[in-house]
């Protein structure tokens, strides 16, 4: 007879309210959404000021040899 396994107490990854761990910080889903929106805002501002940093403007991005 096999022994019964102990119950699984790990968080369920399908739970939409599970906190997000990034580095040493633990974010709720609402905080994570705010952080992502701020990140997108900063990236957009940098791309507006420095369009040469944007990968689509790099002439060598699609520069492979064509056969």
Architecture overview:
The protein is of the alpha+beta class and 67 residues long. The chain contains one helix and two strands. The protein has one helix spanning 29-49, and strands spanning 20-22, 25-27. Strands 1-2 form a two-stranded antiparallel ribbon. A hairpin with a 2-residue loop joins strand 1 and strand 2. The longest helix is centred in the middle third of the chain and has 21 residues, at 29-49.
Short descriptors:
single chain, 67 residues, alpha+beta, two-stranded antiparallel ribbon, elongated
Topology of this protein?
Layout lengths: L19 E3 L2 E3 L1 H21 L18
Antiparallel strand pairs: 1-2
| Strand line-up in the sheet with most strands | 1-2
Radius of gyration: 22 Å
Shape: elongated
Question: Care to count the β-strands?
Answer: 2
Low-pLDDT segments, ≥5 res = none
Broad structural category:
alpha+beta
Strand portion, in percent? 5-15%
- Mean of the pLDDT scores? 84
Write a brief caption for the model.
With 67 residues, this protein is an alpha+beta fold. It is built from one helix and two strands; from the N terminus they run E-E-H. The protein is elongated, with a radius of gyration of 22 Å.
């Amino acid at each position: 007879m096999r022994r019964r396994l102990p119950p699984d107490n790990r968080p369920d990854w399908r739970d939409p309210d599970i906190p997000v761990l990034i580095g040493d910080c633990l974010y709720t889903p609402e905080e994570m959404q705010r952080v992502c929106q701020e990140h997108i805002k900063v990236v957009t501002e940098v791309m507006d000021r420095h369009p040469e940093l944007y990968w689509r403007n790099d002439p060598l991005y699609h520069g492979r040899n064509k056969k």
